[in-house]
Amino acid sequence: MLPFVAASVTEHSKRDFNTQPVIVSSRWDPTPEQLMTLEDLYRPGTLTPTAEQIQHITAQLRRYGKIEGKNVFYWFQNHKARERQKRRRRLESSPDEQQGDVKSLERKESGTAVDVSPPTLQTFSLELRCPLCNTILYDAAVCKLLT
What we know:
Elements: H1 2-18, H2 32-42, H3 51-61, H4 69-93, H5 99-110, E1 128-129, E2 136-137
Antiparallel strand pairs: 1-2
Helix pairs in contact: 3-4
Domain Homeobox: 31-86
Keywords: Developmental protein, DNA-binding, Homeobox, Nucleus, Transcription, Transcription regulation
Protein name: Homeobox domain-containing protein
């Protein structure tokens, strides 16, 4: 009876080796909740978050799935670049009337722009709000919901 047991164990082992391997991806695959939260932070003016803000955002987004600080950093960097590309394409696809705007945009991005327009008062929202409770977070503050 021993040879029979050995044969069945050997056949079982062969079947294990013939199964498809589990593929583990090293890329971050954001959940819909993570994307929605990042978009909500980007829209009001958080274009380049500080290291402390990245830590806070990462802690919030961990509730919805696996994420690291570098994912948050690169998401903001890539999102800003894509917005800039969209804006440039929109200006380039418009008629000649916008041609000057394209050249102005190129000069601004290359650092050679000289703005001769009169100064205007613009307000920018530089405060970071917790998307879960909408409280304003100062410096490296952490939302009370996350503690």
